[in-house]
Give the backbone structure.
Amino acid sequence: MPEPIADFYAVIPAGGIGSRLWPLSRADAPKFLHDLTGSGQTLLRDTWDRLEPLSGPDRIAVVTGRAHRAAVERELPGIPDKNVFLESEPRDSTAAIGLAAAILVRREPDVIIGSFAADHVIRPAHLFDWGVRQAIAVAREGYICTLGIQPTEPSIGFGYIKKSSELIVEGAPEAALVERFVEKPDLDTAREYFADRSYLWNAGMFISRADVLLAAIEENRPELHAGLIELAEAWDDRERRGPVVDRVWPTLEKIAIDYSVAEPAAAAGRLAVIPGHFDWDDVGDFASLTKLNSHGRGNDLAILGENARILADTSSGIVVSQTQRVISVIGVKDIVIVDTDDALLVTTSENAQRVKGVVDALKLTGRGDVL
């Protein structure tokens, strides 16, 4: 394997509950802390293992909630304490990634950072590695770069990136400028995008010089930028950090980095993309989880759970079991069953997106004890 990249720092935003994976994913045990592929380790650990060859173990930072600090450090025992950046509450991706950029640029003015979600499934690692190394070469030239995924189907569940003209950068033979970002389309539009190879799925990965990223935030969201700089100035002073975070963090605007940085950068001709040739899934719902664990055998029943006790007969779909209960599944197709100690979900793959509605209903009825 190539050596780690000396000026590169990997950033893992580890937030979000993953409400479409309820009751498996909860506030105190979100999606990134689960083994959803049967690999024997969590998605967070899988993410760390992908990034370590690129950055080395001492140059990976995790941005996570205070409530998840202990779990993150258990999963990543090698992470330096100074590289765990704690949010007092969720403020969306611009705040999380911008905080990491503001802290790291003070420590290392010329650092290049790459942001990679803690809860995505990516295979194989060597193709991911190649894509990121190209993106870093592009970032050195002052561009903000993203990795786009070549669509495998006309999906309505993802945003899209439209490639524009080729970008000539040494070490990045596949680089292209981005014409625009496109919101999640309807099915007919998604079919058009799928037929047009210039459209890529937006996987939410961004690679940039930290100072370039911060300049983009300052240009488009100056108040948010000012708050991030104030936080960074106090961050490495243990006595000052807590009071400043408690005062400033809740005031930061909630906005995704796609809107605050990527879309304006694309419009200004400063956003580039590298097509990713690896398999990618954001495990957004149980339909996605079923596909990941069916191994191409659509008529089988996928089973997750270390001690799952499942009896199946001519059924397909997925069963996730966290109990000792015997579950019998007979003659049903595309079933989704999630069995936990205090909640049971039964639905189908077709209706998997509707699980978030159950979570919303539980909030409204005051049943936060199962969230």
